[in-house]
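User: I'm curious whether this sequence folds into something compact or stays loose and floppy. Could you predict its structure so I can see for myself?
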Amino acid sequence: MFYKDLLLVDDSEPFCMSIQEMLDENGWTSEYFTDPAEGLNTLKDKNFRVILLDLKMPNMSGLDFLRQMETQKLMGKNYVIVLTGEITIENAVDSLRLGAKDFIQKHVVVEYTDLFFERIEKGFEWQNERLRNEKLNEERKQAIQESQLIVKSIGHDMSGSYYASLMLRLQMLNKKVEKIKNETDNLYSIIPEASISESIKQELEENKKLISNLATDTIEKGKSIITLMDFFKELGKKLKELGSAIDLEKTHKEEVDLNNLLKTAIHLYMDSRVQENPEVIINEKYTETSLKMSASKEDLFRVFINIIENAYKSMDGKGTLSTVTNYENGYANLEISDSGCGISPENLEKIWRPDYTKWQGKQGTGLGLMICKKVIENHEGTIKAESKVGKGTTFKIKFKL
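Assistant: Here's the prediction. I'll summarize afterward.
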């Protein structure tokens, strides 16, 4: 993991040799460079527990060295102790601001060697802690990625091939039962009544009724199973969305305008409900200027659609659906409101949980708003809900632009 314990960068070779001898006697391995550029180049390929860095060097100052480390993304994994013969407040502040972890005057190295060693050991402890955290983060990342794959796979199967296969079988079964029922009715209709006794006729009627009831019951149960399968299909879709929402990297490649995205979502959803002839009034108020941010357009669009769909359902086809956006101190604020049934105070915090699946007497998957919250947080945003029973609900979303 580490090439050597310490790297010393100082333009004075005698000082470097003296420090290296002192470190060797303490059991630590070290390497030094009097040319800062060589030291910087070494850091690209080799890792050290602690870097001891001089500030005043002719070819490249210690502050420039720190700037180069930051530019080359080397600062995060290195513990830098600045060594200088001349200490000033400006030097100390600039060194720490640029990423150095400690600041020691050179005379301290000579006069208080034990203290110098303590400061180095503090750097070793910092490295041990960093490696532990990296290992934990890697394990966490792997666990989440595995969870993401599992959730997506289950969601794909539930809403994809398995769903289609079972639905086809159920539909074929219903057709067969209908066919048997019709054939039975036709069979009994062609039997001459004059050729059979009353007792046989009665028995045939009872059998016909029994078969008819059995067929009807089978068809009704098949319809119930199809309804249940539709629920599982919706659950599968939500699981796939949840898999996408479990995103550690949070890398979003596209510039989106929140005004346009929200406007598109609300009109697309309402257009899909035209045949229901709803009495829903839409009020929209958007900022004149664009609200642009770097985001996953697909993920945010699903968030808006989900919240709009909940708002629509809460009004049961009659009410007012409102959207408002505004800009404040570098942040975009979006509100989606409805005049629907509302949510009671004791249930308002439960809506983000997957185990809360009922509202307005209906059974949902319990995943929709949880996914919305996760996606928004992945975009470093926030979402909260305000509601009054019988008055409606407002979802307030905030993003940094």
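Summary: The chain has a mean pLDDT of 83. The first strand starts at residue 4 and ends at 9.
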